[in-house]
Structures are given as structure tokens and as C-alpha cells.
Amino acid sequence: MMKWTLQKTLYRTAHAVTKPLLNLVKVPVPELLSGPGSVAQLPELISNNGLQHVLLVTDAGITSLGLANGLLQALEKAGISCTVFDGVKPNPTIENIESGVQVYQSNRCDGIIAFGGGSPMDCAKMIGARVSNPGKSVMKMRGAFKISKSLPPLFAVPTTAGTGSECTIAAVVSDPQAQEKFAVTSLKIVPPYAVLDPELMLGLPPHITASTGMDALTHAIEAYIGGFGTSFTDDYAEKAVKIILEDLETVYLDGSDLERRNNLAQASYFAGLAFTRALIGYVHAIAHNLGGMYGVPHGLANAIVLPHILDFSRADCEHKLARLAVIGGLGDTSEPTADLSMRFIEKIRDMNRNMDIPTTVAPLLEKDISQLAQRALKEGNPDYPVPTLMNQQQCEVLLRKLLPSVENTAG
Question: Is residue 112 within 8 Å of residue 152, measured between CB atoms?
Fold first, then answer.
């Protein structure tokens, strides 16, 4: 107990030192094209940058759906050559990134389009980082601010409303041999340009709409309840939460609702602006490690873990959760904050249930829980400014609630 008390003191001291330093960091904001059909404006933007041959980084699923066909035709019409690298795997690996680097170099590309969900975004960022920093391996970029040279021009075109990667300083890389994920963070990998076109999201399957939307909600909530928030990040987090609570379930049921798709694309971007400045928390730390060990999709893992972490930390962020409840139309300020905060968490459970998100993690094994907890806390402590600090035993207790053999009566 004494040891844990000392550790908590050290972690909170680290947070107190980090927060003012973090506020001094000026994170770039991308130049934005947004609204239905906005991707059609991208070739002109690329041309204005003087580029002649771009690499479009995406995955085979997007290629098979033909989602990028309109853009490819528009690029050709504008006289811009484009090589497609559609070998991005879910949770891109170092090998995956290096393959993209080879394609970029062999085709003498001079810019990159990231087209897809979080995996193509992360892969494209790291391809650019490797191209402009050839002497530094991906592993040497692991951690914070280790990329010295600016990337080639990078244009981010998300096809899901979830990761917010089009405006963040992070890329997540998988190491299959170690069965873990790690983050690369740098101001250099914020895309200078982003396109939010909801028409690209109309064909998303309902389960992808659900998990990516809950990913964006997690970004907004963790940025909001953590200790590094500012008026800027709080404002964008509140906007994101309001939209997602109002629109996500409707779009899950009717994926053709273009106006609400557009709203969710904006919400994902707002949440990205918030968490890339205020950071995330234990939901992400656990989700990253469930993804690294078992390949659980990131948004799905976040959705499953989120209500448990909010239960765990509710007492220390009750007023903030209550504020989000009011913003989300779940009550008014005349009600007790305890009631509002619990209602907000119950709303998240309701959303998960209504969108067929499970309450447990199917591949999770009891024998892995100790290692998962250790890895999650290594990621989270002291880097994430969480409202309530968690130790190994507490993390293991939480993870056991996610075991498929456990009947999760709380959900």
C-alpha cells in the first residue's frame, strides 16, 4: 500500500510538470476540405502543391469496394500520376510500412494520400516519416518527438468517422513478434491537409459505423475527463460528444443519412483535435493491448472497455461526466451530479447494446490477464493524465470482467 501511495504521488508530480509544457506545444491544424463531394477538390489542392506523382495508401477492402475510383479518375484528369498501395493490414506492422516505403521510392512519388480508416492513416504517416528520415527505423521512432525531418506532403482522406487521425500527432504500429502495439507521436506527422467527405462513408457496414463512432466518443471523453484539458480541448470534446450521442445510433440504423454522416465526420475530427492535445487514458491503454495481443479491432475494444473505466473513475470526474450528460440531453443542471454521471455511463452501455457491441472480449484468456494489465499500465502510467490512477490488481479485476466466460450483468 505504501509503495502504491508513493507511485501515485510520483505519477501526479509527472502530470503537474507535463501539463504546462504540453500547453506550450503548438499542434498544427490541417487545412480542411469538408462536406459532401469535397474529395473532388483534392486534385486541385495536390496540383497547387506542385506534386506530380502521389502514393495513395489504402487497404484491399477499400480497393475492392471501388471507394477511391472517383478520386483516381479526378487525379488522372488533373494530370497527376498516382500509384496505389493497398497492402495496408489492420493494425499496420513495421514490415507493412517498409513495403509502402519501397513502393513510394520505386515509383519516385513526391506526396502521399492516406485514404481509409485508422490503419491506412497510421501506415501513410509512417511511410512518410521513413521516406523523409531514411536513417531512422520505425522502432527508433517509437515514443515521442523522435522524427526530425518533415514528411512529404500528406493528404488525409478518412473513410470512417472514428480515429480522428487526420488531425492527430500519433500513429500506432503493431509488432506481431512481441504481440504488442506502440505509438509514434510527433508534430511532424500531423497531416497538413484533410478531407472530410461523408459521401465516402455511406457504404460503411453498421458494425463499422458503431465501433468507429464509439472510438471517436472515447477520444472525446478521455480528453475531457483527463487532467490536461484546456478550454480549446473541452470545447471540441463537448461538441463531439453531443453529436455522437444524438446521431450515431440513427446512422447505425440508416447508413444512407448523409447529413448525420457529415455530422459524425465532424465529430470524429473534433474529438481528434481534443485528444491529440489533452491525451487519452486507460481505455486506450487497455484497447491497444487487446489489439496487440489478439487483433481486436481498436474501436470495438474501446467501446467494450469504456463503461468499465468510467465506472472505475467516476468519483473523481463526476462533475465532468455530469456536464457531458447535460450536453448530451440526458438531464439538466438542477439534478444531482452523481445521478447525471451515472446516467451518462448507462447511456454508453445502452448505445453499445443497441448497436450489438458485445460486453466481453471473445479471445481474452485468463492466463494473459496479468501480462495485459502490466502492458496497459506501462503505457498509461504516468503518461496519461487519468482522473483515477489504477494499479496492477485493479486493472486485473477490470480485465476479468471482460472474460467471455463471465456473465457481464452490469451491461
Answer: yes
pLDDT band at 177 (very low <50, low <70, confident <90, very high): confident
What is the per-residue pLDDT for 160? 96
The pLDDT confidence band at residue 330, using thresholds 50, 70 and 90, is very high
DSSP one-letter code for 254 = -
pLDDT for residue 406: 54
Strand ranges, E, within 102-250: 111-116, 143-144, 154-158, 170-175, 180-185, 193-196
Contacts of 124 (CB under 8 A, 6+ apart): 57, 100, 112, 113, 114, 154, 156
Sign of the CA dihedral running 272, 276, 278, 282: positive
Per-residue confidence (pLDDT) for residue 270, from 0 to 100: 98
Backbone angles phi and psi of 66, in degrees to 5: 75, 20
Q: CA 22 to CA 204: how far, in whole Å?
A: 36
Cis bond before residue 152 (omega within 30° of 0): no
| Dihedral of the alpha carbons of 329, 335, 341, 344, in degrees to the nearest 10 | -20
Query: What CA–CA distances, in Å, run from 224 to 230, 328, 349, 359?
Result: 9, 14, 19, 24
What whole-number distance in Å separates Cα of residue 154 and Cα of residue 56?
10
Q: Identify residue 255 by its one-letter amino acid code.
A: G
pTM of the entire predicted model: 0.96
Pull the grid cell for residue 142. 517509437
Is the distance from CB of 184 to CB of 147 less than 8 angstroms? yes
CA distance 309 to 286: 10
Report the amino acid identity of residue 397.
V
Strands 111-116 and 53-57: parallel
